[in-house]
Write the structure tokens for this entry.
Amino acid sequence: MKKIIKFYANWCSPCRAYASIFENTTSNYADQVEIHNINIDEDTSGLANKYKVMSIPSTVLVKEDGSFIKKDGMLSEHELTELILS
């Protein structure tokens, strides 16, 4: 199953604005993707480093084969949907 990961921080204004777009859009695809939210200030898993997250918010789609697509910045509902379906 694909994974969609949102990288954010509580102090990040664009991250807060993007949160509702991400939650509302991904909830429509919960049966197709695993949904993860990673606070970069609390990331002990090293995922931000693994996916080369240099700015936030960032969204990463991890495909079944392990390849990934990373998008930096806020995505619109349409852009996020296209990423999930890619």
